[in-house]
Amino acid sequence: MCLAIAGCIVEIDDLEAQVKIGDTLVATRLDLIGEVKVGDYVLVHAGFAINTIEKEDAEELDEIWAELGGGAW
Question: What is the reported pTM?
């Protein structure tokens, strides 16, 4: 099964970003999406940002993940 997790970009260095997912910073490649900036929310799968999403959608996904028993990162 494939799973993408929502997170917020906190730092960008060329094509690599630090994305805050829960309490963890995850090194994330930006090769697959268009221009993004610090503060944008993205879906991360296998170390790559695959899409941008709205903050509200990211928060809703976090709630669903918690309800399913997904622990904090």
Answer: 0.88
The pLDDT assigned to 72 comes to: 55
Question: What pLDDT, in 10s, does the model give residues 9-43?
Answer: 999 999 999 999 988 999 999 999 999 999 999 99
- Beta-carbon contacts of 18 under 8 Å, excluding residues fewer than 6 positions away, are 9, 10, 11, 12, 25, 26, 27, 28
Distance from CA of residue 45 to its chain's centroid? 8
First-to-last alpha carbon distance for the chain, in angstroms, is 18
Per the document, the length of the chain is 73
The structural domains of the chain, with segments of one domain joined by +, span 5-67
| CATH tag, 5-67 | 2.30.30.140
